[in-house]
């Protein structure tokens, strides 16, 4: 069974250092709380709000020890007026037997505003 694990994080500024460090932090936390190893991952889609363009977040994911061969793609979110700025979102597709309701989605920094219903479940 393939399940999706969602995650999101906001950054303070559109710099490569911030993009890489916060993307890595988010992805590692998503894997940790869901007991996922790279070999379990079918693919990862990373999106950013249009105000993030200084670096590819996928580079940060590929740089994590053991993640070199995980298929990763970056794209931009829709430019919706009033949307949360400077936000990186991740959708990780994993092979797992864990039931859908037991998947733990991860929202960090100001991204907790996106899905407070899921954040409270996972704390």
From TrEMBL:
Looking at the UniProt entry, the stretches that span the membrane are none
Q: Name one GO molecular function term.
A: chorismate mutase activity
Say yes or no: keyword Hydrolase present.
no
* The enzyme's E.C. designation: 5.4.99.5
Keyword Protein transport present in the record's keywords: the answer is no
List this protein's GO terms for biological process: amino acid biosynthetic process; aromatic amino acid family biosynthetic process; chorismate metabolic process
Residues binding prephenate, per UniProt: 6, 89, 107
Alphabetically ordered keywords of this record: Amino-acid biosynthesis, Aromatic amino acid biosynthesis, Isomerase
Which InterPro entries does the record match to this protein? Chorismate_mutase_AroH (IPR008243), RutC-like_sf (IPR035959)
Write one Pfam family the protein is assigned to. CM_1
Substrates-to-products reaction catalysed? chorismate = prephenate
Checking PANTHER family in the record gives:
CHORISMATE MUTASE (PTHR21164), CHORISMATE MUTASE AROH (PTHR21164:SF0)
- Its name, as the record gives it, is chorismate mutase
Q: Which gene encodes it?
A: aroH
